[in-house]
Specification:
- This protein is α+β, with helices and mostly antiparallel strands and about 90 residues long.
- It contains three helices and four strands.
- The termini are far apart.
- Strands 1-2-3-4 form a four-stranded antiparallel sheet, covered by helices on one side.
Length: about 90
């Protein structure tokens, strides 16, 4: 009986930790229509901004939505092998 409760407790803890709604992320190649429909800053402009600010190679780029909020999320590989995660508001560019 004790073992059947454990999965329920784990599920409850995960849902509390992750918050009310998880972000839905799209690959860069599928973001265009969402950007256009929601009046977001063009993806290429944000990509170039991140590229110049972080002086590394962008190895992953996604557009994520959480309710009415949109964020561009990047994984940047630095020149010394360091990996950074960078998140930018898709409406403001900050």
């Amino acid at each position: 009986m004790r073992h059947s409760i454990a999965p329920l407790l784990v599920g409850a803890l995960v849902s509390l930790w992750s918050g009310p709604a998880a972000a839905e992320c799209l690959p860069w190649s599928s973001a265009g229509p969402v950007i256009q429909k929601n009046g977001l800053i063009p993806a290429g402009r944000i990509y170039n901004q991140i590229q110049s600010q972080h002086k590394g190679q962008i190895i992953k780029a996604t557009l994520c939505r959480n309710g009415d909020s949109f964020r561009y999320k990047f994984t940047v590989l630095g020149s010394k092998g360091d990996v950074k995660s960078v998140s930018v508001d898709a409406r403001t560019g900050r």
